[in-house]
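Hi R.,

Here's the chain you asked about this morning:
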Amino acid sequence: MQVGVPKEIKDHEYRVSMVPAGVHALVQAGHTVLVQDGAGLGSGIENAAYEAAGAVIVTDAAAVFRRADLILKVKEPQEQEMPMLRRGQILFTFLHLAPQPRLTRALLDSGITAIAYETITDDGGGLPLLTPMSEVAGRMSIQVGAFYLQKTLGGRGILPGGVPGVPPGDVVILGGGTVGINAAMMAIGLGARVTIIDRSLPRLRYLDEIFHSQVVTIYSTGAYVAESARRADLLIGAVLIPGASAPRLVSREMVGTMKKGAVIVDVAVDQGGCIETTRPTTHSAPTYEVDGVIHYCVANMPGAVPRTSTFALTNATLTYVLKIAERGFRDAAREDPSLRAGVNTHAGKVTHEAVARSQDLPYVALDSLL
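And the predicted structure, written out as tokens:
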């Protein structure tokens, strides 16, 4: 199979979808890997490293898309990439389609098979390809939030950990999944007071256990969320429903009750965000203000730490890439239910129920198309 690795072109996106070790594994298995010139530079990987692993360096993205049967990306296709997609091709990347009807329509019109990293689901219900980026984003959320709490950047002038004789800041995390756990780890490390809100009592018990009562756990109700938002110096949105739009837990009215100079970091922005005032931002213009509250809603946070993120992501994706390349999409999907769960569109149909429901589109089970 011809496997293509184009250069990412989303704003300040420095990750790359395959590292040289992955290229080597694919070439050893008898496949051809086409890497766009300079695709790895943002992650500190030179063309020479790819060539040494057996890749063919291709001058431009158009040639990669034209020649490859399987396109590996990190982020969803951008405007100029959409016309390059073609029927029968496989696209393997983060998609987050629920809040993006225009992208969904482009994928359906192209007839491409679009497999989303974020909806591949393992036997235990986990999200093995989303997890490494959730770990990165969760840890970054505290780092970024602490930065924007500085008065020089419009924040309250709070040091999250405080100092002896001065109380620490309040960090409130909405959601106790992978993002929430990693955010809590970082916030605790800084010495902040940490609250995690979740709607699952078993999850709250687990969090209490692993953090040894270093966090306050609260069951998610509207009243408790509102109260917690009011006292937060830093509010982290970390709620995920795989494939679907994130639930709006914090209303515009609640944002209006927050402290002036408080910071919101909505990691759920890829799925529409769990704060009503959330709208996607970029690394070029990462923040905006609503009612005196700073919002950081960058939709590709891990792209700012590409060296870490690229290797963490490709560690997780390589097994699936090899499986698709070796067996072809149809056989690989028939054999692997976790891969089937990742298929969002195929042959002009929406094949992920949560995506279809979010956009009020017809849902067609992938099994019926295979």
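The chain has two domains: 2-120+305-369, 132-304.

Let me know if you need anything else.
M.
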